[in-house]
Amino acid sequence: MSAAPDVARRRVAITGSDGIIGSRLAANLAGELDVVGVNRAVADVLDPAALAAVLRGCDAVVHLAAGVLRDGSWNEVWDVNLLGVRNVFDAAVQARCTHVIYASSLHVMGMYEEQARPDIYAPGRGPLLDTALAVRPANPYAVTKACGEIIARYYSDVHGLAVTCVRIGTMNVADSPAIADAAAAARLRDMPEAERRARLAAKWFSHADFARLVCAILRREVRFSIVYGVGDNPGRFVDLEPGRELFGFWPQDGSPA
């Protein structure tokens, strides 16, 4: 592990820059980095030539664009979350980027959560899930995100990219650990209200902390890593130590006790 150049001189592309997470990240990083927003109007992740053109001259990529979990079907997520990920990494190699930050998801550990809820959301409940545990996806979206981590590892090992997979918890429009988005996933609508609130409070990650994590990652040269994108929440059930050990990052925001 070694220090990277000052982030202020770096040109960073953000795919999915018009989404809930991407738009806030682009705004939060604008004062720190030279940000290149990449959305479908600029370059679709399924268009390799367009991606190669827009990433030319970039030092790093934060890959957020993805098919999101709605009704849980494979068709919603397969192409974008697999072919799209490959295309972004290919374009990053062609552009001679040094870093790629891949937005994975806490869903890749979803079966651990499903089998232990609601107790898993209680503060101090027991051992935290670390990044060395085997992934256990609970839906097709999570399977594609786990596959994305494998693709990321391949490009790190074979092409020499410094790649970090961030397993993001819950980030919302309100940027709050207490206010769930109105368009909650269908699978959560029958969950008791108290459990839904505990779940959100345990998994919440602030937009400001995500921006701080991105900057921390770009400041160091770590060949491959996986960290959790979750706040310093009393009910969190994942281990945040890898972020501190590798990047000197610890979230400043967290849900109330």
Describe the structure.
The chain is an alpha/beta fold and 257 residues long. The protein has one domain: Rossmann fold (3-Layer(aba) Sandwich), CATH 3.40.50.720. Helices cover 36% and strands 15% of the residues. It contains eight helices and eight strands. The strands form two sheets. A six-stranded parallel sheet has the order 3-2-4-5-6-8, with helices on both faces. Strands 1-7 form a two-stranded antiparallel ribbon. α2 crosses α3 and α3 packs parallel to α5. It is globular. The termini are far apart. The mean pLDDT is 92.
What would the keywords be for this entry?
two-stranded antiparallel ribbon; alpha/beta; six-stranded parallel sheet; Rossmann fold; 257 residues
SSE map:
Layout: E1 2-3, E2 11-15, H1 20-29, E3 34-38, H2 48-55, E4 60-63, H3 78-94, E5 99-105, H4 110-116, H5 140-159, E6 162-168, H6 193-203, H7 207-218, E7 220-221, E8 224-229, H8 241-247
Brief account:
The protein is an alpha/beta fold and about 260 residues long. The chain has 8 helices and 8 strands, in the order ββαβαβαβααβααββα. The longest helix is centred in the middle third of the chain and has 20 residues, at about 140-160.
